[in-house]
Design brief:
By secondary structure, the chain is α+β, with helices and mostly antiparallel strands. It is built from five helices and ten strands, in the order E-H-E-E-H-E-E-E-H-E-E-E-H-H-E. Strands 1, 2, 3, 4, 5, 6, 7, 8, 9 and 10 form a ten-stranded mixed β-sheet that branches. Strand 2 and strand 3 form a beta hairpin. The two termini are 19 Å apart.
């Protein structure tokens, strides 16, 4: 039986979401270790990878369960009892055998959270603090990302992809209780693309941003920190 899990996690102390040969300290590595204790040896496939320190409120994974695990709700309960507190299974449900957490996804939604205030130890892992940020400029310029573009200048080097073209259907910013929230929705994202887009929004003016989107010049902006980024939702 194929099962889909929706995960919420605090990625602060993990080396990203994907399993790694060099370390088991990843989100999926931790999940697969717990599953193995339940005699579930299926590989867990996620909708996409998140980097070190990045969080999720709606990561989706799929796995194939053995016959003796035929109750997704029971599995959810047991997993939440066994998993470390930074990882929580929000939902577990049976899906069609051809469902694929990554390839069946239509849209991916990410949020990036900024706060214009001094740092504090209670929010440092979850918010990017900035002393100087122009919300109005961000709100205006973030809309420039909407459309179909070659994002080769908004991607970490070393990425192995067949195409750097992506379609961003929504991009907007708003303020909420002292936070600046940036929202991005697309058919897919390249490695570190959102963090590089946020970095560009913080450093480039509208004309420079248009130039980089047109691949006419690469300003080589540093990616924004990972702690402010959240994988919010996967749409199927």
């Amino acid at each position: 039986m194929r099962c889909a899990l929706t995960l919420v996690y605090n990625g602060t102390n993990f080396l990203g979401s994907q399993t790694q040969k060099s370390s088991s300290n990843t989100i999926l590595g931790t999940l697969e270790h717990v599953l193995s204790q339940l005699h579930i040896e299926s590989r867990v496939i996620a909708s996409g990878r998140t980097d070190k320190g990045v969080h999720a409120t709606g990561q989706v994974c799929h796995l194939d369960l053995p016959l003796f695990w035929n109750d997704p709700q029971k599995l959810k309960k047991v997993l939440n009892e066994m998993l470390p507190s930074p990882i929580y299974i929000k939902s577990a449900k049976r899906v069609d055998d051809d469902f694929h957490a990554r390839y069946s996804a239509k849209k991916r939604v990410y949020r990036y959270i900024i706060k214009k205030s001094p740092k504090n130890p209670f929010e440092n892992d979850f918010v990017t603090f900035l002393d100087d940020v122009d919300f109005q400029q961000i709100q205006n310029n973030i809309k420039l990302f909407v459309g179909t573009y070659d994002f080769k200048y908004f991607m970490k080097t070393g990425s192995d992809v067949q195409s750097t073209m992506r379609v961003i259907s929504r991009a907007f910013a708003y303020q909420h209780k002292g936070f600046i929230v940036l929202n991005f929705e697309a058919n897919g994202f390249l490695r570190a693309q959102i963090r590089l887009m946020v970095g560009a929004l913080l450093k480039l003016d509208a004309d420079q941003l248009k130039t980089q989107l047109a691949c006419a010049h690469n300003y080589k902006i540093k990616p924004a920190p990972g702690n402010g980024l959240y994988l919010a939702r996967i749409k199927y």
